[in-house]
């Protein structure tokens, strides 16, 4: 058994896959395995992998999305702990070692995540990117690490301090209630115990976006988790990202991505909130508020899509059922498409002013 299994799902990332693998080979922890799951690539990915095939475990599948690719990798994994790496991103050298040490030192912790850095190939760099990326939680929600996690210990006290960030902390706790409401976990950065798969299950393969959020949220619902407030992961922004909402000359595909993300968030929150009678009975007010917010967040982009007015109308009605009245938006769904778009544009302008 290896200490850590690093699973790299990839699809048409021939130009980046080598850099991703090299970042794993540069880890301070060497007791690990690399599993590359090629999700039906049609570019030169296999050719770019040739120098690494004797050093990694490689499998190619039909194109069924990143959640399926990660599930294939998790079923292959021999490591005590599992982590993921998107094939266009990079690890910091200390990531695997630092997170594995946290899990080893705290047997009651099921998963550990961290800060991350954001970059692109044109010079963008954001060292502490989590609070920027998840603004709705860390800024709009007025949250800090101390509010999210009830316990903290300095990495220096644990003997895990790094020279670049000597005063960093590790945070611990049961955070499901907060995570349910706000996107406060960077799922890219997480490492978890492989045996959790026996109780949590695998990733939902119906989701092609935010599938890791659903998976991590299920872990936090049942287990205590940890967080390290230094970046261990580097997320790369580029034009070919599946989650890029600005793609395409007309940005129609970008709108579809926004809708799919919001739909998956709503489905996840319904599954883990409303459809769990025991949890819903004790957290009804909070769950209802979250469901109403997500119904509105899905309904608004649907108003800007031809044929989306009926579903958006139904979603605004659900907002009312969950305690948030959206009468004027509901009326606006009866306007023709240009009128609906104008209402949404005005709403966004007013929201930004406030």
Indicate the CATH topology of the largest domain.
Spore Coat Polysaccharide Biosynthesis Protein SpsA, Chain A
How can the largest sheet be summarized?
11 strands, mixed
CATH architecture of the largest domain: Alpha-Beta Complex
> In the CATH hierarchy, what is the class of the largest domain?
Alpha Beta
Describe this structure in words.
The chain has 354 residues and is α/β, with parallel strands linked by helices. The protein folds into two domains: 4-237, Spore Coat Polysaccharide Biosynthesis Protein SpsA, Chain A; 252-353, no CATH class. It is built from 16 helices and eleven strands. The protein has helices at 17-25, 45-49, 66-76, 95-105, 130-133, 135-138, 145-148, 176-181, 197-200, 211-222, 252-274, 277-282, 284-303, 309-321, 327-332, 337-353; strands spanning 4-10, 32-38, 57-60, 81-84, 90-91, 109-120, 125-126, 151-154, 169-173, 191-193, 224-237. Strands 1, 2, 3, 4, 5, 6, 7, 8, 9, 10 and 11 form an eleven-stranded mixed sheet that branches. Helix 10 (211-222) runs parallel beside helix 11 (252-274). The radius of gyration is 21 Å and the shape is globular. Residues 244-251 have low confidence and may be disordered.
